[in-house]
Amino acid sequence: MIERSEADRIAFSFAQICSDAAVVIMEVYESDFEVRTKDDKSPVSDADERAEIIILARLKTEFPDIPVLAEESFSVGVKPDIQGRFILVDPVDGTKEFINKNGEFTVNIALIEDGKPVAGCVYAPAIGKIYLGGTRAYLGDCQPGGEVFVENLTEIQTRVPTAGAITALMSRSHVDDQTLAFAEQHGVTERISAGSSLKFCLLAEGRADVYPRFGPTMEWDTGAGHAVLQAAGGCVLTPDGDVFVYGKQDAGYLNGYFVAWAVPQ
User: What CATH number should be reported for the domain whose range is 166-261?
Assistant: First the structure.
């Protein structure tokens, strides 16, 4: 098992990799880039592919013994043998936000051990915010390619919900009837729309109370955000209250529905 200090060290390593990979992401973002469609009908750009190449090279150097499951590689048939411990990579989470140029896209890297996230980083380069999660969660300002130092980060924690004033985070691109019904059932009084893994991070820094998701996601979409939220004091469960796990090879790494909470349930 990973020691506490080791989880934090890994989270900081992921953060620096995210920052460095974001240089090419922002080069594409600021250009008149082309959007293509993958076999699964999801959009992809040069940013996804170029960033993933950088991330995979760095992970191979820094964590040579840990297999990596990465979105773009997986989409072209690269399926690593993951046993116990593996790394999840989403080079550009929130591609629709990237295409729409609203800044709400992220770079995600997470370490999974025995089906649970133990370290992760979510970086939103267009807005210069970076989130880390190991044994504790941190938030800081970081420009693409910038150095990530603990001295420049602030420790963050989730908040305790206030009775009669529940704030829910909802996907900017995927809100459905089940999500709205959940909000009504749980007395949600305010809704905040956000893209990508930033929803987990907003929970982690105490800006909301719950994030329900009743739509399809992949493990690389959620692993890093889950790690940050967990380190800040929150949790991610199935709608029935069961543990939300990773490494679902038989399901093609497709997640089921989940609810992310600011406090343990």
Answer: 3.40.190.80
pTM over 0.90: yes
DSSP assignment string, 67-132: -EEEHHHHHTT-----BSEEEEEEEEE-HHHHHHT-S--EEEEEEEETTEEEEEEEEETTTTEEEE
Question: How far is 96 from 87, CA to CA, in rounded Å?
Answer: 24
Beta-bridge partner residues of 116: 113
Over residues 71-82, the pLDDT tens digits come to 999 999 999 988
Q: Given the structure tokens 């993951």, which residue do they identify?
A: 82
For every residue of 244-257, DSSP letters joined together read P----GGGTTEE--
Q: How far apart are CA 196 and CA 218, in angstroms?
A: 12
Q: Note the residue count of the chain.
A: 265
Give the Cα separation of 118 and 25 in Å (integer): 26
Residue 31: Cβ-neighbour burial (10 angstroms; 0-12, 13-18, 19+): exposed
Q: What is the CA 88 to chain-centroid distance, rounded?
A: 10
4-156 to CATH, choices 3.40.50.10420, 3.30.540.10, 1.10.357.10, 1.20.950.20 = 3.30.540.10
- The full set of domain ranges for the chain reads 4-156, 166-261
**Residue 240: enclosing H or E segment and its boundaries?**
none
- Tens of pLDDT, residue by residue over 10-35, are 999 999 999 999 999 999 999 988 88
Give the C-alpha separation, 226 to 82, whole Å: 19
